[in-house]
Design goal:
alpha/beta; Rossmann fold; single chain; globular; phosphoglycerate mutase activity; six-stranded mixed β-sheet; 283 residues; binds 2-phosphoglyceric acid; PG/BPGM_mutase_AS
């Protein structure tokens, strides 16, 4: 009997329909998404590795981020997130909006927020009143000055948390500066996320303000004295175009030292960035 099924072949197809993964002219789209507002963003408390949920506003921001992604026509093959629920829930809400709940989702502690050490749980304005605004700015945004570490008997030590049972205890922080966060995140970027992007998978990374600052610093090669001025807003997709060497391609609409472009209203994004920057300033 004659085989009536069409043969799935690209032979004879125009070039535009062929997969051209890996060529020098290959470009890739990567989307970064900071979680929506958490309960501790709302309460203005240093959060770090404390696993707080999204606030009501954060839930709405996460759904809105999903809607923005739908409107932009972007879609994804795989997602990466941390082991903290504010990023995970944000990813879920976005994937629900995109009708992509089925795609593989990889969780790694290496995508966690920067560990805020002994500041975790403290109010940012009260901490500035006690230690001075300059000191708090250094703890929040300097590249290489970590906040004071957790004490030996702190219940917040990651070693006490079952989710880190498989992590080498030597890798578990008691406090981190951005440089430390970059040093534990970038190996995962290189070993897992870059190969996925280069294989042609469209990647969504849902993470945190400072783990994403570590990533954009790396992508855009932002200087150590410039990165303190970079703040990433909650719940706004940031779209990067990358070349075959994972270098960002300049795009219209990018802001400051970032080559990525935020989706949504530019003025609203700028207001959110400003609010993040000013969290430790008395109103
Ligand atoms: O508290 C935190 O973990 C982070 C993000 O919310 O705060 P900051 O923006 O001050 O680094």
């Amino acid at each position: 009997m004659a085989d009536t099924h069409p043969k799935p072949t690209l032979e004879g197809e125009p070039d535009s329909k062929r997969a051209k993964i890996g060529g020098e002219d290959q470009t890739y789209t990567l989307v970064l998404l900071r979680h929506g507002e958490s309960e501790w963003n709302l309460a203005n408390r240093f959060t770090g590795w404390v696993d707080v949920p999204l606030s009501e506003t954060g839930e709405a921001e996460a759904r809105a981020a999903g809607a923005m992604l739908v409107d932009s026509g972007l879609t994804f093959d795989v997602a990466y997130t941390s082991v903290l629920r504010r990023a995970i829930t944000t990813l879920w809400r976005s994937l629900e909006a995109l009708d992509l709940c089925w795609i593989p989702v990889h969780h790694s502690w290496r995508l966690n927020e920067r560990h805020y050490g002994a500041l975790q749980g403290l109010n940012k304005i009260e901490t500035a009143e006690k230690h001075g605004a300059d000191q708090v700015h250094i703890w929040r945004r300097s590249y290489d000055v970590p906040p004071p570490p957790l004490a030996d008997d702190s219940p917040m030590l990651p070693a006490n948390d079952r989710r880190y049972a498989d992590v080498d205890p030597a890798d578990l922080p008691r406090s981190e500066c951005l440089k430390d966060t970059a040093e534990r995140f970038l190996p995962y970027w290189e070993s897992d996320i870059v190969p996925a992007i280069k294989s042609g998978k469209r990647v969504l990374v849902a993470a945190h303000g400072n783990s994403l600052r570590a990533l954009v610093k790396h992508l855009d090669d932002i200087a150590e004295d410039v990165i303190p001025g970079v703040n990433i807003p909650t719940g706004v997709p940031l779209v990067y175009k990358l070349d075959a060497n994972m270098r960002p391609i300049a795009q219209e609409g990018s802001v400051g030292p970032l080559s990525g472009v935020y989706l949504g209203d530019a003025a609203a994004v700028a207001a959110k960035v400003e609010a993040t920057k000013n969290q430790s300033k008395a109103k």
